[in-house]
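Pasting as-is:
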Amino acid sequence: MAEEKNTLLAKLDELDVRFGQLEKQIADPAITSDSAKLIALSKEQGKLKTIVAKYREYKKILADLEDAEQIIKDGTADEDFKALAKEEAQQLESKREELLEQIQNTLVMADKIGIDSVIMEIRAGTGGDEAALFARDLYNMYVKYAESRKWKIEQLDFSTTEKGGFREVIFGVKGPGVWAELAYEGGGHRVQRVPETESQGRVHTSAATVAVLAEPKEVDIKIEANDVLEHVSRAGGPGGQSVNKLNSAIKLEHVPTGITVSMRDEKSQHKNRAKAWRILRSRIYEYYESKKRAKRDSQRKTMIGSGDRSQKIRTYNYPQNRLTDHRINLSIYNLDKIMAGDMDEVIAALQRYDKQQRLKNL
């Protein structure tokens, strides 16, 4: 812990020095006349402003604490004065630790804390109908958890099976802390249970994949209109009947990455196009972010995992009422509650581990 704290403080010293350099550069007439340079430096300064302000407050508390401790040690000081200094020192120590925790969270988790909207995609994997039912159960788990957090949920697209499972479901979740809590869910999820369709009572293993995509604002990612091909067709309903005579189904294809999105959920072409663009934007953003992560992770471990769908992250064992997260070797014997949306314990454990890894990498 002491080593981590020293590393954190050394990093904060660096950022404080850099902030001072930026202030001088921005005030330099040679810089103010170069708008491109000024914008870049102002953006960098803006990113550092909050954390440097907190760190300077932290250093002020340390100075005040030192003053209070000198009074306590002073043999000539009045006893009432010493008692006041002791009381102040206790308050300052408590405030110091609280502030350091805030600084730590802001510094190492800033990329997660700042994103308040995600698109989640759940797809049934191996296991036929049972995999689709598991995909439905995962969807219900996330919806209940989101509701407990008072987050807004928006259905974007889904494909069901005859038995009521989901081959695929795509939905948006919006609210404070969304990415900071749900980002760890990306990957392969495996279930072990007796399927509803199994008459012999044998335990089967099935799988589903989850993708969690940060939903960028349009300013965060620029997609050239010429890079996207749009195909319009008639939306077909179950059994092949026409949902609507108009050309309302939309397919978008991003030529540089090969990413495609089809949307036929709405009767309105305009609504389908808007939804398709949201999903496309998120998938392209994730595509480029994953490339950046891969490059960074080849030099140092920065996250629990990449969210790669091929990576098995978790097993849901119904006979033993056990959830196991393989990334952090965590087993919780409370699966029924977790599936009912009580995910606090597992998410908190993942966040703690991720924060530790990020601190080591400072």
